[in-house]
Design brief:
The complex is a heterodimer of chains A (about 150) and B (about 150). Chain A is α+β, with helices and mostly antiparallel strands and about 150 residues long. In chain A, strands 1-3-4-5-2 form a 5-stranded antiparallel sheet. Chain A has one domain: Hotdog Thioesterase (Thiol Ester Dehydrase, Chain A, Roll). Helix content of chain A is about 20%, strand content about 35%. Chain B is mainly beta and about 150 residues long. Chain B has one domain: Roll (Thiol Ester Dehydrase, Chain A). Helices cover about 15% and strands about 35% of the residues of chain B. Chain B contains 3 helices and 5 strands. In chain B, strands 1-3-4-5-2 form a 5-stranded antiparallel sheet. In chain B, a hairpin with a 5-residue loop joins strand 4 and strand 5. Chain B is elongated, with a radius of gyration of 17 Å. Chain B starts with 13 loop residues before the first strand and ends in a 6-residue tail after the last strand. Classes of the chains: A alpha+beta (about 150), B mainly beta (about 150). At the A-B interface, helix 1, helix 3 and strand 2 of A face helix 1 and strand 2 of B.
């Protein structure tokens, strides 16, 4: 799914990954799979009449779930210690979420290396849905020395 | 405005049994195809006790099955006015299918921006193994309330 940067070092960028476009079926499946039955995501009548929107919107946590797929595939064998996002914009049916990751810091910790990655999810170039951060921990000296 | 006296309020605690079928449906919804997220044997071969939760799934565990939006009514907030602002997880141990997770939630902050047009509710959650009390994960959620107009 993703390719590692040639070197684990600050500034290195992971290969981007684009998810399949979000459909109304995706939103219905996610409502069932997540247990988040908020009608704002699946019921256009509710979205229009109760929330004052033109259409349903994607779950913010669906965007985060796609970022979660991305982040768990970045560094084989790494353990995810922290994962956070700030939701910037609402996704809509038809959006194909593109995830990117860039290494911010690489720090030696007891037993291994902590890699802090800045994450973003975009619906189109420059149109950010969510921005976030992950901390990956790699045991031993597998990360090498940057 | 939401009554700031609700800061510190503990929301109802409950135990969430993590079911493999739920994790598989979640995986299907997000297009996950890696076998360890779908199949118990593949998960064990990958070193997990059983199918692991996806990194954002603890949020789903953190929604009370009896009422997923049970934090809103005590605050007098309508579901149609809320959006998700921020979400953070810190992981101590993987949560896997078959686990029974005790969920403890607390409202830790309420504040407003833009003259009261936006209010923020912060909820911190701890996810623990019901059997041992060991911490699986902690989470911090920020809910944005869109007020139609600043209320007096």
């Amino acid at each position: 799914m993703t390719a590692n940067p040639t070197k684990i070092e600050p500034g290195a960028e992971f290969a981007a990954w684009q998810a399949a476009p979000i459909t109304r079926t995706t939103l219905a499946l996610y409502a069932g799979g997540s247990g988040d039955h908020n009608p704002l995501h699946v019921d256009i009548d509710f979205a229009r009449e109760k929330a004052g929107m033109d259409d349903v919107i994607g779950h913010g946590m669906l965007t985060m779930a796609l970022m979660g797929r991305y982040v768990t595939a970045l560094v084989p064998g790494a353990r995810l210690d922290h994962f956070s996002t700030r939701f910037v914009a609402m996704s809509r049916p038809g959006d194909a979420v593109r995830c990117t990751g860039r290494i911010e810091t690489v720090e030696a910790r007891e037993g291994g290396t902590a890699i802090t990655v800045a994450l973003a999810a975009e619906r189109a170039p420059g149109e950010v849905l969510a921005a976030g951060q992950a901390v990956l921990f790699l045991s031993g000296d597998a990360a090498g020395t940057a | 405005m939401i009554d700031r006296a609700h800061i510190g309020l503990a929301l109802p605690a409950y135990v969430y049994p993590v079911e493999a079928f739920q994790l598989r449906l979640f995986a299907k919804a997000v297009g996950e195809t890696r076998p360890e997220y779908l199949d118990s044997a593949a998960a064990r071969a990958a070193g997990y006790r059983d199918i692991p939760c996806a990194p954002s799934f603890p949020f789903c565990i953190g929604m009370n099955p009896a009422d997923p939006f049970d934090m809103l009514a005590p605050l007098g907030v309508d579901l149609g006015r809320v959006l998700h602002g921020e979400q953070a997880f810190d992981y101590a141990a993987p949560i896997c299918a078959g686990d029974r997770v005790r969920v403890e939630r607390r409202i830790t902050d309420i504040f407003d921006r833009k003259g009261g047009a936006l209010e923020f509710i912060v909820i911190e959650t701890q996810f623990r193994d019901e059997a041992t009390g060991a911490l699986f994960c902690s989470a911090r959620q920020s809910i944005v309330v869109r007020n139609p107009e600043p209320r007096a």
